[in-house]
Amino acid sequence: MPFRFAVVCSSNQNRSMEAHNFMSKRGLLVKSYGSGQQVKLPGTSLEKPNVYTFDTSYEYMYKDLYKKDTNFYTQNGVLHMLDRNRRIKEKPERFQDSRERFDVIFTVEERIFDQVMEDLENREKRTNEIVHIINIDVIDNPEDATLGAFMFCELGQKLEATNDLDDAIDDILSEFEQKTKRTVLHAVSFY
After folding, report:
1. Which residues lie below 8 Å from residue 120, measured CB to CB, with a gap of 6+?
2. DSSP secondary-structure letter at 19?
3. Dist. CA 131–CA 178, nearest whole Å
């Protein structure tokens, strides 16, 4: 049975969606989420981001920003990102609102790793199924999101190829850290 993967960033826009797109094209069973309170996209100034709720569709965000300033949001890549996102799923999803179960949850920064861990620890335990939470820091820009997607996909494929994930994961993560020169955080929780 294939592993169930989740990728979590803050707003379910850039890093998690790039990984979702790439991993699914490589045949992995993956979903993506955000862990923030709201969805934030860059605005025309740092003080004025575009803020949406998690139930706002990617289509609406695309049209809204297209109307606001087509040239600006094309130049900074946000319209391209939203166009990709709306082809993958209807709207961003918040991890804390999902009750789906995963074998592995990837996070893209330590703050998000902590939010995911806190949410999982506060849930009522029902099945005692184990879930591995793995963090690899990925800078929130298009280039690093693409690199992160490659890393999550490669790591996901290695994890899925094991006969016993719980037994093999420490060696796989250690080898991955040495190869990529990236620090990996790993924890387990239960459903």
Report:
1. 131, 133, 189, 190, 191
2. H
3. 24
Strand-pairing partners, residue 131, are 189
Amino acid at 53: T
The one-letter amino acid code at 59 reads E
Residue whose pair of structure tokens reads 């890549």 in the numeric block: 77
User: How far is it, in rounded angstroms, from Cα 181 to Cα 20?
Assistant: 23
Q: Which of 104, 113, 108 is nearest to 159 (CA)?
A: 104
Determine phi and psi for 86, rounding to 5 degrees. -70, -20
Q: Considering the entire predicted model, what is its pTM?
A: 0.97
Residue 56 has a pLDDT of 98
Give the span between the Cα atoms of 155 and 43, in whole angstroms.
33
Cβ within 8 Å of residue 176, ≥6 positions away: 154, 155, 158, 182, 184
Fold of 4-36+94-190: Rossmann fold (3.40.50)
Average pLDDT on 153-168 reads 97
For the beta carbon of residue 119, count every other beta carbon within 10 angstroms: 17
Q: What's the helix, strand, coil split of the chain in %, to 5?
A: 50, 20, 35
The structural domains of the chain, with segments of one domain joined by +, span: 4-36+94-190, 39-88
Segment 29-66, tens digit of pLDDT: 999 999 999 999 999 998 999 999 999 999 999 999 99
Backbone angles phi, psi at 70, to 5 degrees: -55, -45
